[in-house]
Design brief:
The structure holds 2 protein chains of 2 kinds.
Chain A: E1 12-17, H1 21-30, E2 39-44, H2 52-60, E3 65-70, H3 81-98, E4 106-110, H4 116-133, H5 146-149
Parallel strand pairs in A: 1-2, 1-3, 3-4
Chain B: E1 4-9, H1 21-29, E2 34-40, H2 46-59, E3 63-68, H3 71-84, E4 92-96, H4 98-102, H5 108-126, E5 136-138, E6 142-146, H6 150-161, E7 165-169, E8 184-185, E9 190-191, H7 192-205, E10 209-212, E11 215-223, E12 226-233, H8 248-252, E13 258-259, E14 268-269, E15 272-273, E16 285-286, H9 292-296, H10 301-305, E17 318-324, E18 326-329, E19 333-335, E20 352-354, H11 355-362, E21 383-390, H12 407-421, E22 426-431, H13 441-450, E23 455-458, E24 461-467, E25 470-477, E26 482-488, E27 490-495, E28 497-499, H14 502-510, E29 537-539, H15 549-567, E30 571-573, E31 579-581, H16 591-595, E32 601-610, E33 613-622, H17 632-636, E34 642-644, H18 649-660
Classes of the chains: A alpha/beta, B alpha/beta.
């Protein structure tokens, strides 16, 4: 049995919509609300821009968790984008579950531009969950990630 | 292959204190496509931008990565700098290593490692960027102002004076808003009506202003420069165009039990009414819930006495459809409902009133003709106690956590006015802090204490207890470290300012964001205080946050300048980051057409050359003037034909790869 010598440092990709969640992340920064450095943000115009393939790709490349954050239902800058995101991600998450991959590694949440505190809280909580789950070994493709190969 | 230059900003010590800049600079040198990597103290400064321009020339850069603050802050700055240097502005990407890195991570090694990852993610994206050119769209030279209080009126007047058409939509039967209800204004004690009503008249008579009262915005579509808005004009049941405003109908109306909203319910009005004497338009409205004709079908007295035959019980709501280039939100506020504050007995004791009710009592046109009388028995009070911060700065969950900003000053005003008119009345004020930042504000408050003998007690009120026809106010005096109990005939509560109930719905209609207190969020708290994050939507007055009249007017005029600046343009540059369908890949499935929230995708029959033969194919076509670039269509496209410029599938994939590397 192998034992991890280094403490587990997860990698979390966060897709944030430009209008709400990304601004919420900025507000968390301006308010100096800390969340783990393993959370790294990719800016997208809207949560509906997140193709399920992006999520799968992140897992394949060794991400331990993927979170998608958008505007609150009803507040989407493009009116309906977050509803599409919600349906697509619900489907994707249940598919992951079916395949035997912990669906807890994924999360969809609504964070408005005014919710810096919520942004930090959501990221802290999600990070804790990923720490509890440990490394993404079922999904990571050993050929394309250095993190898993070690 | 791109020739990418990476510029890492120190932001003084904002980034440099937490991130080892040199490590980032060196790490970027080995990234694919990077030919130049450097750092500077302030990239956004003129010298920093100069450095960027020099590097473009020297190294023949085709792509630029700025590792600095949020793109929401300076993306436009660096795009302009790139443009000036001869690089397409859309070849610039920002790695956000301040708000999303240096400001939140205290561990230097961790923050530096994250900055490297974020920077290489941006580099990976720029490698796949393509030069983009914005399209243009027309500007409708008409503005919409939602709300007809002092904020909306000032914005509308300023826009109209600049020569543009403005429509004001006000949900009440008259314009004027909350300021019309005020008696005097601080710190000058001039009468509110004397300074407001001329503005109302100016607006009503201005050739560039149309006013829709008793109307509400129902639907909004479109975008900056071209909003389509549907306004519902509620039926007044009185024909506004022929009513002369003589008031005979109001005199004869037998239904007299409706609470007079303008006087805060302190007296009653008729079912057909004009809110106040100087109302604009001076046309009555029938309160259909109170009107006997509407309730029972019998009556119709107003219609019989009307000399102009203007009463119309059959009148329907009217629908107005109009296009606007810009929208100003000026929805204002109301005061917090005090039903949860049992300790003050507001709901049970008529002599416990809010400041706005006192404002009406003190007003010569109010329910008591301007005499200070107790609502319970109509007698003059001997002692008045004011309670500050009722529902403001309240962390118990009942009220609001913020400071309502205006209460300290209006309470000082009320106290002073009472002492001036009725020197025999004792006036005390319970306060947490007295906050008087403003021109001549502290002097004003000191006058209340020193010249008018108002007793200020630092402490909270625990309970108001009715006792022998009076009220016993129990509270604490923190400076004296003692409990106090004051006998009062009138208790006045400074209830918190709250965003108007319509704010949330309008925020959804206009996709303007609101904060957790339902105040509209400004695009930048310091540098864009009157713009909402949604282009073409501007903020005016208390709807953005509590403020007094001078600040409201200043913000209203500022919003007007922004609107005028927008309307003065004939064409607007549109966002080039929009969807595009690859005609050779498109299978004609219509998925994209169904999910597009703007109806920007349509299908056309087009002749294409495929495998050496000409074929007629049904393919998706994106209307570039309408597409807003959300990307919903890209995900449903089964054939991978639809892509979003600036956020393409390959760009985001490359970002994911770089981030997870």
């Amino acid at each position: 049995m192998s034992v991890d010598k280094q403490p587990f440092k997860p990698l979390i990709a966060a897709f944030c919509c430009n209008w709400c969640s990304y601004a919420g992340a900025d507000l968390a920064g301006t308010s100096r609300l800390a969340y783990p450095a393993e959370v790294k943000i990719i800016r997208v115009p809207c949560s509906c821009r997140v193709n399920p393939l992006f999520v799968l790709r992140a897992f394949q490349r060794g991400a331990d968790g993927v979170i998608i954050a958008g505007c609150h239902p009803g507040d989407c800058h493009y009116t309906t984008g977050n509803y599409y995101a919600r349906r697509r991600m619900t489907l994707l998450f249940s598919m992951l579950d079916y395949l035997g991959i912990e669906k807890e590694r994924t999360k969809l949440d609504w964070i408005s531009a005014a919710e810096g505190v919520k942004f930090a809280t959501v990221m802290n909580d999600f990070s804790k969950e990923i720490h509890a789950l440990g490394r993404n070994t079922r999904f990571g493709d050993l050929r394309c990630t250095t993190a898993v190969a070690q | 292959m791109q020739r990418i230059g990476v510029f890492v900003c120190w932001c003084g010590s904002n980034i440099a204190a937490a991130v080892d800049i040199e490590t980032v600079v060196q790490a970027m040198k080995s990234e694919p496509g990077v030919v130049y990597s450097t750092d500077y103290q302030y990239m956004c400064s003129e010298a920093g931008q100069g450095k960027l321009k020099d590097a473009v020339k020297e190294h023949g850069l085709t792509g630029i990565v700025i590792c600095a603050c949020s793109p929401r802050m300076h993306e436009a700055t660096f795009r302009n700098a790139a443009k000036a240097a001869g690089v397409n502005p859309y070849m610039v990407e920002i790695a956000n290593i301040r708000e999303q890195c240096s400001w939140i991570h205290r561990d230097r090694a961790e923050a530096t490692a994250k900055a490297v990852v974020l920077s290489r993610t941006a580099v990976a994206k720029v490698n796949l960027n393509t030069p983009l050119t914005p399209g243009t769209s027309d500007v409708v030279k008409r503005a919409l102002v939602i709300g007809g209080g002092i904020a909306g009126l000032q914005s509308a007047l300023d826009i109209a004076e600049a020569g543009y058409q403005v429509d004001i939509v006000e949900k009440q039967p008259t314009i004027g808003g909350k300021m019309a209800q005020l008696d005097k204004t601080f710190p000058t004690l001039d009468c509110a009506a004397c300074i407001l009503t001329p503005k109302m008249v100016d607006a009503a008579q201005h050739e560039n202003i149309r006013i829709y009262t008793y109307s509400e915005v129902e639907q909004v579509s479109g975008f900056v420069g071209n909003f389509s808005v549907r306004i519902r004009g509620k039926a007044r049941s009185v024909k506004a165009d022929i009513c002369s405003g003589c008031g005979l109908c109001m005199e004869k109306c037998p239904s007299k039990k409706a609470k007079d909203e303008f006087n805060m319910g302190l007296n009653n009005r008729r079912a057909i009414y004009i809110p106040f004497a100087q109302a604009i338009p001076n046309v009555p409205v029938i309160d259909r819930e109170q009107c006997i004709k509407f309730k029972t079908g019998k009556c119709g007295l107003c219609a019989r006495v009307c000399p102009a035959d203007a009463v119309d019980f059959e009148q329907q709501d009217s629908i107005i459809e109009e296009r606007y280039g810009a929208v100003v939100l000026a929805t204002g506020f109301h005061t917090l409902s005090l039903e949860h504050y049992d300790e003050y007995q507001y709901a049970r004791q008529p002599d416990v009133i809010t400041s706005l009710e006192l404002e009406r009592i003190m007003n010569a046109a109010g329910p008591t003709g301007g005499k200070l009388l107790r609502p319970s028995n109509g007698k003059a009070p001997k002692s008045v106690v004011f309670v500050q911060c009722v529902g403001s700065r309240d962390t118990t969950g009942c009220g609001k956590t913020y400071c309502s900003k205006i209460c300290c000053m209006y309470t000082a005003k009320h106290a002073m006015l009472i002492r001036e008119k009725y020197p025999e009345v004792d006036v005390s004020v319970f306060y947490i802090d007295v906050r008087t930042p403003g021109k001549n504000f502290d002097e004003f408050y000191r006058r209340a204490v020193e010249d008018y003998g108002v007793r200020y007690i630092k402490g909270m009120v625990g309970k108001v207890v009715p006792e022998k026809g009076r009220l016993l106010v129990r509270g604490s005096d923190l400076l004296d470290d003692s409990q106090v109990a004051l006998e009062a005939d009138l208790v006045v509560l400074a209830s918190a300012v709250e965003a108007d109930a319509s704010a949330k719905g309008l925020a959804t209609l206009l996709t303007a964001s609101i904060d957790t207190n339902n105040f509209y969020t400004e695009a930048h708290p310091k540098l864009k205080p009157v713009e909402s994050p949604t282009a073409g939507v501007y903020l005016s007055g208390v709807c953005q946050g509590p403020k007094d009249i001078p600040e409201t007017v200043a913000q209203a005029s500022a919003a007007a300048v922004k609107v005028v600046g927008l309307l003065s343009k004939d064409k607007l540059l549109s966002n080039p980051c929009i969807a595009r369908a690859d005609e050779l890949l498109c299978s004609g499935c219509s998925n994209c057409e169904h999910v597009c929230p703007y109806g920007a995708v349509s299908y056309i029959e087009q002749e294409l050359r495929i495998h050496g033969r000409n074929q007629i194919r049904r393919i998706a076509k994106v209307n570039e003037a309408i597409c807003q670039g959300c990307g919903a269509c890209t995900v449903v496209c089964t054939s991978g034909a639809m892509d979003l410029r600036g956020f393409s599938n390959s760009q985001i994939m490359a970002e994911v790869d770089a981030l997870c590397r």
